[in-house]
Design a protein that fits this description.
mainly alpha, about 0% strand
Amino acid sequence: MTILLLGLILFLGTHSVRIVAEPWRQRQLARQGEAAWKGVISLLSLLGFGLIIWGFGLARQEPVQLWQPPVFLRHLSALFMLAFFVLLAAAYVPRNRIKAAVHHLMVLGTKLWAFGHLLANGMLADVVLFGAFLLWAVLDFRAARQRDRAAGTTYPAGTLGGTLATLAVGLLAFVVFAFWLHGVLIGVRPFA
């Protein structure tokens, strides 16, 4: 569990600088330059992500079950995952109405991903992993919305074509991941 916790601290810590220390971040960007700053943050994030994967794998070898989730929560989690993939697609597909209305789609999607996985899994390692991501996503989403309000940020209106493309890409990504990649990469087949 220690390696998982170190990975979470490193990964989520690097992603939390804007939440807790935006003025310091701005000074570092000005001093180091954007490329150097992003390079350091990327390396630390990758190291943290690697530790999360390793630590979670180790924690799963000695599972500590906190509760046994009912089957219907797995189905509810699947709905959250469908929404997650649509939000993820909306973050990248240009000119869609979802991005125009909601903003900060990856962070919002992370909230759904983490919450859905918390519902469907009752092991200690799951609670630590998904609980940490959920807490981070809630705080980051709030901070991002506050930055938008302070800056008077506006988002371009979406189009029907962009929105339909977003829904199609999100649905396709969900199907591929849920029915194939989740089993290959994670070792769990949600619909088996």
